[in-house]
Amino acid sequence: MKLLITGVSGQLGSAIYKISKYENYGTYLSNLPKTNNKNIKKVDITSYNDISSFVKKIKPNVIIHCAALRNVDLCEENKELAWKSNVIGTKNIVDICSELRIKMVFISTDYVFDGYTGGYKEDDAPNPINFYAKTKVIGEWLVQNLEDFFIVRTSMLVSNLPGNYVDFTLSGLKSGGISGATDIKSSPTLVSELAEASISAIEKDLSGIYHMAGDEMISRYEFMRTVATIFGYDSNLIKPTTSDELKFKAKRPKDTSLDISKIKNLKIKFSTLEDSLKKLKVQ
To answer: Is the predicted pLDDT of residue 138 greater than 70, yes or no?
Structure first.
């Protein structure tokens, strides 16, 4: 089986590429992947001709679409760039998958929900409250036009790579302290487990929408305190605050925790935050 992974330099894309035992190909745009070889190419997915020629050359069985502009505030400030990256890029891949009858795996987000209730199930109606989330909902709509698709909604990725909340928290702790919002809750997800689950879903030939995320709902504040404890810092260096006080440019949903019963019923498991961080510490 041939897999094409877009966004192979990102947290999830690189993890999937690393663990997959199949014939792997990858695309990146600006950040050269650490694991670079002849099967990884710089490709602009927002250019139909660029991505189409690459896909037609390698003829993958499955495209795992990880590439996206995920900076929520940047998406709010630069809607044109967000639309181009997250909607046009996705539409190009959908069109190619439709033409060549390729299965598409689309990595979506818990932010498709408004955050008023939490514990969201797959059949709960999306209601995005910022522009990033709107682009991902539109991406889901586009993907659902395909005959064979698999949509993964996940939450707050956790890894050893720079730029995620663990790195952000540890940097704050090393600087003497950091604030965490008590009113923003989600389901922190270990990237290595999500990568394994994604491959398992492909092997099981799953289709439709599945929530694949950490098996716990927790606030940003409690997340940071847990990181501090696991990595040997004083958790009192984490100060409670609210999302209003943090003055985000884009509105954040308050509780986007995901119900993962559907994927757990298929014997695909995810860890709690504490167990995820313990695994991360020894990776």
So the answer is: yes
